[in-house]
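Morning run. Coffee first, then this:
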Amino acid sequence: MDCCSSNLKEAKIENDGVCPSCKNKAKNVKLITLKSLLKPSALETLNAKMDYYFCSMEECDVVYFNANNEKYLVSDIKVPVHQKDASTATPICYCFDWTKEKIGEYLNQEFSPDPIENIRINIKENRCGCEVNNPQGSCCLGNVTKYVKSIKK
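And here it is:
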């Protein structure tokens, strides 16, 4: 069998999407997300035949891992990861650059459109690219909504 054949099967250690470092239940993420956001040195080690998971636990340094417990850390990612970086300059919405700081400014000044409305408009117009921009590989609207609610309290 050719070593480059896509028919090769990988031996998998089943971990049910549990982070090997913090033991948090993680979310499956598409391969395109890792291909877009891993630094070149980490990308060279990517096993494209594996399923990957995103660990959202703030205190855990692991961002992605697979069923063989191969890990990609915060230092392997091109962008800061919202769930793991408390900086107000870190995006919560990666497609339209809504940071904690910018969201706070818009809400305090009552600018329009507000962040949630702005993101919804762009989603409706099919402009978002969350699978390639957001480290969690999915829409940020839930994260932004949660953050807005937390600062309105």
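Helices lie at 31-37, 40-43, 100-109, 115-124, 130-133, 141-152. Good start to the day.
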